[in-house]
Amino acid sequence: MVNIKINGMPYTVPEGISILDAAKQNGIDIPTLCYLRDINEIGACRICVVEVKGARSLVAACVYPVNEGMEIITNSEKIHESRKMTLELILSNHEKSCLFCVRSGSCELQKLAQEYGLDDPMAWAGEQNRYEIDESAVHMWRNNNKCILCRRCSAVCAKTQAVGVIGANNRGFKTHIGQAFELDLAEVPCVSCGQCITVCPVGAIGEKDDGPKVTAAIRDPEKFVCVQTAPSVRATLGEEFGLPVGTNVEGKMAAALRRLGFDKVFDTDFGADLTIMEEANELVERVKNGGKLPMITSCSPGWINFCEMYYPDMLENLSSCKSPQQMFGGILKTYYAEKAGIDPKKIVSVSVMPCTAKKYEIGRADQSAAGVPDLDISITTRELARMIRRAGIDFANLPEEKFDSPLGIGSGAGHIFGATGGVMEAALRTAAEWITGQPGAPLEFHEVRGTEGVKEASYKLGDLEVKVAVTSGLVNARKVLDAVKNGEKDYTFIEVMACPGGCVNGGGQPYQPASVRNFTDLKALRAKALYDEDAGMELRRSHENPAIKKLYEEFLEKPGSHVAHKVLHTTYKPRKRYDIKEK
User: Fold this and answer.
1) What is the per-residue burial (b if ≥16 Cβ within 10 Å, else e) of 252-262?
2) Rg of the Cα trace of the chain?
């Protein structure tokens, strides 16, 4: 520990931590733009500058370590003027469209401009667009005219996702963020995870807004429009309306969707339970019959993209199961359409997902169980929030409502799909009973819970030892896959989620500024909402879901049947990294 002073007040803090952390620990906020803890700690934006006694110039608080006797000033006139001038310089190259920006109201640059007396940020903004907007990708767009060169996007792409398809091109005043050789985003091996969108402090990157498509479908009297919501969305949507992180808004969300005009409001938890039925059966079959091991989950489309492009030699390890979103869509347009007497061509199947890669997934090959796409439109949590606001719905005062049956019934196992480790635990709950042949197998597998990037465990299920690994964030997936390929690790089953912490931290989840991201464990708080709901439920195993049982009795016959494979399973193919425009 060392003794320091901040703004004249004495404090004792751990030696070697940054000035930024020392100040935060003692209730003093220092503004930042480029800083992201453990990802982008480069002191590039110069917004966090402070005075240190004895230093010849202002220093960047995010990268400057404290030492014994240090005296720090964080709020002098010199500091204020420096930060203000930096903001003016940043804004001078910033597109003049703040009023219509997707991030207006949640833009970190806009907030700082207001706080530092730039009452009309547009007066400082650049006059002309120097860059064309890149709209080539299915899931997102990039607008370099709004980019402030903070490099958060390139840092998370390289360090968290191990993809690194975007970065700084050219030097000096010509520096800009782009792809190698100035290729379009659709021409490089982007996995569509959207993590770059969540960390951008301004509106330079965003998901393609398909909300208007959904609204148009709802208004079409010839269409029967159904919506499904992913497990994690109930734990994050409330943040868009000012509720604390980790608030479960399942009931209000269902009510909001009905008021938006959807004909049926369903729960992707049903699809998650269905995924477990097929995936657990596939695992048992592979173990008993000498199939390809380790088996690897296939729920995360960002991970599937990554595997097809970066690990094509491991495609046989992937479970052939479609994702819960796609399974649900397949059942909706086959089983449900037949039961309800609706032409599948008249059904518009919409999903609300935490994930921008879902926008890519709906266009993948082998995803049309009824001869039409399983899913028609996928929107993110953020897009749903915009739709609710545009419709003038008072979300906070909505009543608590339930999903429609039968495709709205889900188990606790389905709920926890949204957290890293949740798919593994849900599968183990069912596989444990099936392997041992005894009811009452373990319900909770705590070793696979938590937000760590890699988790390992071994379970004795009857006479069988099942070695499992759980990983989230593609940089961690690389570590696990390379260890398997090199013979360093021997697993039976691996869960991979593209986004760090799983779907609760997906690329389509609500924006949170760096001031929150850097000092709050969003992943843990959001996941807790799902585990808490699971713990309080009577129905906690996927194979005990009565709606799932009825589906197999009336339509699918049994897990792994010919009908199940036709509707619920898919295929994969290797993809060239720089020839991926064709899906």
Assistant:
1) bbbbbbbbbeb
2) 25
Tally of CA atoms within 13 A in the half-sphere of 351 that contains its CB: 32
pLDDT digit string (tens) for 45-65?
Answer: 999 999 999 999 999 999 999
Checking if the pLDDT of 439 tops 90, the result is no
Burial of 174 (0-12, 13-18, 19+ CB in 10 A): exposed
Coil/strand/helix, residue 534: helix
- Indicate the length of the chain as a whole number: 583
In the 8-state DSSP scheme, what is residue 102?
T
Does the structure show a pLDDT above 90 at 99?
A: no
SS (H, E, C) 273-314: HHHHHHHHHHHHHHHHHCCCCCEECCCCHHHHHHHHHHCHHH
pLDDT of residue 438: 76
CA 50/CA 32 separation, integer angstroms: 12
226, 179 in Cβ contact below 8 A?
A: no
Return d(Cα 583, Cα 459) in angstroms, integer. Answer: 39
With beta carbons less than 8 A apart as the criterion, state whether 530 and 235 touch.
yes
Residue type, 107: C
The pLDDT value given to residue 54: 92
The domains of the chain, with CATH numbers, are 2-87 (3.10.20.740), 96-206 (3.30.70.20), 212-568 (3.40.50.1780)
- What digits encode the pLDDT tens for the residues 461-479? 888 899 999 999 999 999 9
In DSSP terms, which residues pair with 466 in a beta bridge? 459
Residue 475, number of CB atoms within 10 A of its CB: 16
Query: What local confidence, expressed as pLDDT, does residue 301 receive?
Result: 97
- Count, in order, helices (H) and strands (E) of the chain: 21, 17
Residues 6+ apart with CB under 8 A from 348: 217, 223, 224, 225, 226, 376, 377
**For residues 542 and 273, is the Cβ–Cβ distance under 8 A?**
yes
Q: Which residues contact 461 (CB under 8 A, 6 or more apart)?
A: 431, 432, 435, 436, 441
For residue 451, pLDDT over 70 is answered with yes
Q: Which residues contact 35 (CB under 8 A, 6 or more apart)?
A: 20, 41, 43, 45, 48, 62, 514, 518
